[in-house]
Write a structure and sequence with these properties.
By secondary structure, this protein is an all-alpha fold. It has a single domain, classed as DNA polymerase, domain 1. Helices cover 60% and strands 0% of the residues. The protein has helices spanning 14-22, 28-46, 53-64, 73-92. The longest helix has 20 residues, at 73-92.
Length: 100
């Protein structure tokens, strides 16, 4: 699975795949190693206006093998908190460290 293309994950289409590749994330193993929050941070840095909380939900759900609507509420809440930290740091021009 280490070299498996990222687009084989559920919910990862061609646009997301291209964006992830732009961020240097090309395989499932790379995405798993960094996690959804770090991948979101990278995407947000590259495309701040095009990447939303939904992208973070989709990345986490893809790693879990489920639809983003099926993510547990506590996971969504934690992801929302991380997204706020990243978004605020992005607006200030700083780099946020993720705690999730």
């Amino acid at each position: 699975m280490s070299d498996t293309a990222i687009d084989t994950l559920p919910g990862i289409g061609p646009v997301t795949q291209r964006r992830l590749e732009e961020a240097g994330i090309c395989t499932i193993a790379e995405l798993r190693a960094m996690g959804s929050v770090e991948a979101y941070r990278r995407l947000k840095f590259i495309l701040p206006r095009q990447v939303s909380l939904n992208a973070l939900y989709a990345l986490e759900a893809a790693l879990r093998g489920c639809h983003w609507l099926d993510l547990p509420q506590d996971v969504k809440t934690a992801l929302q908190q991380q997204a706020r930290i990243i978004d605020e740091a992005s607006r200030r021009g700083g780099v946020a460290r993720c705690s999730l």
